[in-house]
Amino acid sequence: CDGQADFSFLQHPNLQREASSAQVINLLKDTSRLIGAVSNADRADCRGEIPRIDTCDIIAQGCNLTSCLPDATLNDTYISYAMEKYRAAFNVEKDFMDCNKLGEPEQVNELMQAMILTQIRNNMELAAIYGDADLPTGDGQSDWNNLMGKNDGWLKQAFNCAPANQIIDAAGAGLSTDLFMSARKAIPAKYRPNRSNFKFIHGPGVSDWWLQDRVERPTDAGDIAMASGVAGNIFGQSGFEVPMWRENLTYNAQNVTHILYTPLDNLLYLNRRKFEMHTEYKVEKDVFQSVAYWTQDAIIQRPEEVVVLANVDVCSGTPYSGCVQVPV
């Protein structure tokens, strides 16, 4: 090999840090399918509360029917957040930088930065979705556990905080229009006027099922779906496909998935607008080691505005059949 590696970003990580840190964290959010679509908030403090204001459903009455005016009041509640710290690390052998055939060191530097940032973004989104602080963590545990076990994500919060009658357990049954109608019916009355903003949040298998269902219909809509690959909405509700949404969760030896039905802005992703990457040359290993740090939290702003379709078999389950009573 020939040439001398000039990995300037790695050798001088402090250069333009203040100018680049905000750009980096924005890049991570903007290129993420779900994090970029939900509500985002940058906070200077790592812990705090988000206020919510509500009132009772009936604040009016007929005149002269009682001796007093209605005494309804505004109720304030708070959602707490606590951002947790994460880290990522990777090594680059100096021999690779000196001898690679991908291009000049500066070009390889840019390529590797883009790859690492993409993978960090993927990990940020997975933690926001599947985080579960009850998982065992530490030395000897899986990479999955040591990423997910730091904090609870949106799915864990949905199961813990959504009203019980809004968690619809398919118990291994397959996809069906009955299943999606059950989610629509489970929404409390006060949120039904906003139902057009609700979306089914799911993985690619659900999209493929709906497309195949449409294609198999001997109608113009089926022909259009076959030609375009676009299936359209389900009961007027659009789906939001998340590429990394897991469809291989285990339920009674079946592969299943969960589906969320909620407005996207009900999911909130918080971070501190600070993304730090530190790099140093490890002479004992002849490698450049880079370590990145960031803090984040994922919360559901209005748990009562979430429906969970749980334990759905995307491939082989008997289609779900049932009806949910519309709540008053």
Distance between the termini: 74 Å
What is the overall silhouette? globular
Radius of gyration: 24 Å
Roughly how much helix do the residues carry, as a percent range?
A: 25-40%
Q: Which runs of at least 5 residues are low in confidence (pLDDT < 50)?
A: 1-23, 26-30
Mean pLDDT: 83
Which key features would you list for this structure?
single chain; 328 residues; alpha+beta; 5-stranded mixed β-sheet; 13 strands; globular; disordered N terminus
Model description:
Helices cover 29% and strands 26% of the residues. The termini are far apart. By secondary structure, it is of the alpha+beta class. Strands 5, 6, 7, 8, 9 and 13 form a six-stranded mixed sheet that branches. Strands 1, 4, 10, 11 and 12 form a five-stranded mixed sheet that branches. It is built from nine helices and 13 strands. It is globular. The protein has helices at residues 8-11, 17-30, 94-99, 105-130, 143-148, 154-161, 177-186, 204-215, 220-228, and strands at 39-42, 47-54, 75-82, 84-93, 167-169, 198-202, 239-241, 249-251, 254-263, 267-271, 276-282, 287-300, 307-312. Mean pLDDT is 83; it is low at 1-23 and 26-30.
Compose a concise summary of this entry.
The chain is α+β, with helices and mostly antiparallel strands.
Topology:
Blueprint: H1 8-11, H2 17-30, E1 39-42, E2 47-54, E3 75-82, E4 84-93, H3 94-99, H4 105-130, H5 143-148, H6 154-161, E5 167-169, H7 177-186, E6 198-202, H8 204-215, H9 220-228, E7 239-241, E8 249-251, E9 254-263, E10 267-271, E11 276-282, E12 287-300, E13 307-312
Parallel strand pairs: 1-10, 5-13, 6-7
Antiparallel strand pairs: 2-3, 4-12, 6-9, 8-9, 9-13, 10-12, 11-12
Helix pairs in contact: 2-4, 8-9
